[in-house]
Amino acid sequence: MATFSRSAKTLHPAALQQLYAALETARKIIVIGGGFIGVEMAEQISLMGKTGQHPFEVTIIEMLPHCLMLACEEEFCVQAEDELRRMDINIMTNSRVEALEGEKTVSAVKLADGTSLPADLVIIGIGAVANIDLAVKMGLDADPRGGIQVNEYMQTSDPDIYAAGDCATKFSLITGKPSGIRLASVACSEGMIAASNIYGTTRKTMGALGAFATKIGNRSIAAAGLTTSAAAKEEIEVIIGEATAPNRHPGGLPGCTMDMKVKLLFRKDTGAIVGGHVSGGESAADMVNIIAIAIQDKLNAEQLATMQYATHPMLTASPLAYHVMLAAENAALQF
Ligand SMILES: Cc1cc2nc3c(=O)[nH]c(=O)nc-3n(C[C@H](O)[C@H](O)[C@H](O)COP(=O)(O)OP(=O)(O)OC[C@H]3O[C@@H](n4cnc5c(N)ncnc54)[C@H](O)[C@@H]3O)c2cc1C
Which of 124, 152, 181 lies at the terminal end of a domain, its last residue? Predict the structure, then answer.
């Protein structure tokens, strides 16, 4: 049974060793939070159980209507959940965790509706906040949830001190508002900006875009920028272009994902792309990276519908059915 400490704050290598040790005896595992981290944890533990010494009963508890909903389109969240269920993972959505029960060790997870779910091991994949105590003690400006305050050059309130990565405040590339996005790709970009500025080349961050990719079972899902619901919350009216096509050509080739789908969101007022979502084969991650650069450069549907791209029978859709181009064409027809 896993030891459970209310003061535990960080994911540390020692915590992972503890997790491995706990998995040797645990059977009922509850993952709190169906975001990327929770979903990937659940998937990997379930796989370990199927190939290891004993199977686990893994349950994801998510308070939103679907897992991955903060980053992905609802229909792709449903596909991800189908894959998780196919791997025998239980999913409880619209369920808010209220407390962990147990004395020295956790024994159950209590939900807001009063349900108590027995658990040998609980993994919490929610609400990570950077530890910025050191910066605060040094007197740097900080926002307790957002991190160490930085400007576009990654300078803190002391111009000789820079901050980058999860510990630094961010703003959204699309809305300009404070952003909670914390990603390795954003951290690396910010680190490069800070380092360049320290050495005299002036570089500015354009804000956090949020490009995500994951693989759940046999399905890869990737997203960049806004979802339809996030756009609605921001009162950004969007035109949506969609395309579904095989990711190889012809579709009968081995390893083909017949239903690879791309969904693109363009602002109705300016025409600029503000979001893109991909579900299908492993090329989803690279395809979303094309979409990410299009968002960065504010390309419109016409520009993407006439884009030029590489194709190969074993690697991509047919030149006539390249997903991003087709989805953009679909959107262009609606403007
Ligand atoms: C389980 C998990 C999966 C993830 N998967 C992805 C993914 O697939 N793609 C993606 O883009 N992002 C992913 N992320 C997010 C990504 O890991 C972070 O955004 C990224 O690591 C942030 O980089 P960083 O350098 O700011 O911080 P970190 O990677 O946390 O590095 C900070 C380092 O500083 C050290 N440190 C802290 N305090 C001190 C101190 N006082 N003195 C000296 N050293 C100190 C820490 O030990 C650590 O090594 C994932 C995160 C988690 C937790």
Answer: 124
In angstroms, what is the span from residue 183 Cα to ligand 1's centroid?
Answer: 8
What's the CA-to-centroid distance between 16 and ligand 1, angstroms? 14
Output phi, psi for 322, to 5 deg: -65, 125
pLDDT digits (tens, 9 = 90+) for 207-218: 999 999 999 999
> What confidence tier does 106 reach under pLDDT thresholds 50, 70, 90?
very high
- The answer to whether position 160 is within a domain reads yes
Tokens (6 digits) for 302: 């016409």
User: Does residue 14 lie in a domain region?
Assistant: no
- The preferred substitution site among 183, 212, 215, 288 for testing ligand 1, maximizing ligand atoms within 8 Å of CB, is 183
Domain range spanning residue 147? 133-198
In the block, which residue shows the tokens 């994949």? 125
Q: Is the pTM of this model over 0.70?
A: yes
Does residue 328 fall inside a structural domain?
yes
> Do 173 and 250 fall into the same domain?
no
Nearest partner of 198 among 140, 157, 159, 230, judged by Cα = 159
Q: Is the pLDDT assigned to residue 58 strictly greater than 50?
A: yes
